[in-house]
Specification:
Layout lengths: L2 E8 L3 H9 L2 H13 L4 E5 L7 H15 L4 E4 L3 H10 L5 E5 L3 H14 L2 E5 L10 H18 L7 E4 L11 H15 L4 E5 L10 H14 L4 E4 L6 H11 L5 H9 L7
Length: 267
């Protein structure tokens, strides 16, 4: 079954940023619980727009969320200091989002992985930028994974590989390249979970939610393991359930029948 990482606890969304600044536990906990009820396995948590208050906010809100939900937190930050602040207060194994292939970040984040042993999202990006072809992406992913496995105690089961969907508005071939990369990564790195940040593909386009859900169906058909997405969109669950059923994923038939009998109206 597709692993869903709920994306809504992100300070780039104005109501969430205001809730962070006002320390509105009620709003943030309810948003977390709604995503848990929607079937998420992790809650992505990003407070990066708060800049010098990012670490403070993560240190406050992670225990609050863990007291009210059963889901591990995906601590989403480009700041090693903020990542460490979140990892330090997280109970159990967190999900670190993310480890890119940039030299400075590798040197700063790998020691955190050794100290706290989170699961890790690896971003296929290095100091030269984004890979331009599926072969380049696989080469870069291999370098990052080799370093990660040689310098940390993590195993394949601990890793999500983010192939970094790029906006169609900027690169019209981005969807095709992602799907080709996904197939190649699954062949070259069996046992490593693949991941997509769903909303990236539609950035700058109209009708973003339609684009996102259509892309999601294609991703499931190509074997994607995990997605960072808005699980509360009314058509999200239907897209996941039907796409998994169409692709004969294990358990998908039973999941589809349960969904179909749960009061969903016919179109």
């Amino acid at each position: 079954m597709l692993i869903i990482i709920g994306e809504l606890l992100n300070s780039s969304r104005r109501p969430v940023e205001e809730a962070f600044l006002q320390r509105d536990e009620g709003y943030l906990v309810e948003l977390a619980m709604e995503q848990e009820r929607a079937g998420c396995s992790y809650l992505d948590l990003n407070a990066s727009t708060l800049l010098n208050r990012e670490s403070e906010i993560l240190t406050w809100i992670i225990p609050v969320l863990q007291n009210r939900t059963s889901l591990p937190i995906s601590i989403d930050s480009a700041s090693p200091a903020a990542l460490e602040s979140g990892l330090r207060v997280h109970r159990g194994r967190a999900l670190l989002n993310s480890l890119p292939g940039k030299q400075r970040e590798l040197e700063e984040i790998i020691p955190l992985i050794c100290d706290y042993r989170p699961q890790v999202i690896v971003s296929c990006l290095d100091d030269t930028g984004f890979p331009e072809t599926p072969d380049q992406l696989v080469s870069l992913a291999g370098k990052i994974l080799n370093r990660l496995f040689s310098q940390t105690p993590l195993s394949k089961d601990d890793i999500f590989l983010d192939l970094l969907a790029r906006p169609l508005a900027v690169r019209p071939e981005a969807g095709r390249l992602f799907l080709e990369s996904l197939l190649l990564v699954r062949k070259e790195f069996p046992g490593i979970k693949t991941l997509a940040g769903l909303s990236n593909i539609s950035y700058g386009l109209p009708r973003r939610r339609v684009v996102n859900l259509t892309f999601l169906s294609n991703l499931i058909g190509h074997g994607l393991d995990a997605v960072i997405a808005d699980p509360l969109h009314p058509d999200f669950q239907a897209t996941v359930v039907v796409s998994e059923f169409l692709n004969n994923r294990p358990g998908a038939r039973e999941k589809f029948l349960a969904w179909a009998r749960s009061g969903q109206k016919e179109d």
